[in-house]
Write a structure and sequence with these properties.
The chain is an alpha+beta fold. It folds into two domains: 9-85, OB fold (Dihydrolipoamide Acetyltransferase, E2P), CATH 2.40.50; 89-208, de novo design (two linked rop proteins), CATH 1.20.1440. The protein is built from six helices and five strands, in the order βββαββααααα. The chain has helices spanning 52-55, 91-107, 115-128, 135-149, 162-173, 186-203, and strands at 9-21, 25-32, 36-42, 61-68, 73-82. Strand 2 and strand 3 form a beta hairpin. The radius of gyration is 18 Å and the shape is elongated. The mean pLDDT is 93.
Length: 215
């Protein structure tokens, strides 16, 4: 971040994590379309009545006005288009959403092109809130598509059934915006879950904290 003396910039993204700093400030990590994953400090965001109090929570998606500093950004304004408030009333869905945030944070970097991961994250959080979709399937689709986006998706093993193989091919080739449009049988879901678990063990070198809260 060499050009830290430039003026403010508007970035679009989702808050991956948020934590307290000092008495009244917040440190947030945002996955953005323009800058990849960035860290920003929001001064006074924890003060009662602050306009930044709600807009620096996890899951917030919108536009963020930031100044680039030496080692991090300063967040000075936010316009949130989706707070995903419905998640907060369902513990299991909140935990699944937090897992998606942690997964995305693990894979993304600053100044990388993370547009596809941001789109996948946003569409996956939306999918959690659809009553017609099985959360287990949403999780598997998210995981497998994330491996595809990051170029870590090897050919599936030969033991998969034809329906499972067809589903994997659909996940690989379908644009993120149209991926949550199908259902599968319990047998296919078990096959996809086993495949995703195998890929997680092969490609991810640590356990996500949020998995401790998922059934």
């Amino acid at each position: 971040m060499a050009n830290y003396n430039l003026g403010p910039e508007i970035v679009t993204g989702m808050v991956l994590s948020s934590g307290p700093v000092n008495d009244y400030d917040r440190r947030v990590v945002i996955l953005t379309k323009e800058r990849g994953k960035i860290t920003a400090f929001a001064k006074g965001a924890r003060r009662q009545g602050s306009r930044m109090l709600a807009s620096t929570d996890q899951f917030c998606f919108g536009s963020f006005k930031v100044y680039e500093g030496r080692t991090a950004y300063n967040l000075i304004e936010a316009t949130i288009s989706n707070y995903f408030e419905e998640l907060r009333g369902d513990y299991e869905k909140t935990c699944l959403g937090m897992y998606f945030l942690e997964f995305a944070s693990y894979y993304t970097r600053e100044n990388n092109d993370e547009i596809e991961m941001l789109k996948l994250l946003y569409q996956s959080i939306r999918a959690i809130l659809k009553p017609s979709l099985d959360d287990r399937l949403v999780r598997v689709i998210f995981e497998l598509k994330a491996f595809v986006v990051n170029g870590e998706f090897p050919p599936p093993p030969p033991g998969l059934s034809d329906p499972a193989r067809y589903t994997v091919d659909f996940i690989v080739k379908t644009p993120v915006e149209s991926i949550y449009t199908f259902a599968v049988s319990e047998q296919v879901l078990r096959e996809l879950s086993a495949l995703s678990e195998d890929y997680r063990k092969r490609f991810i070198d640590r356990k996500f904290k949020s998995l401790d809260f998922l059934v």
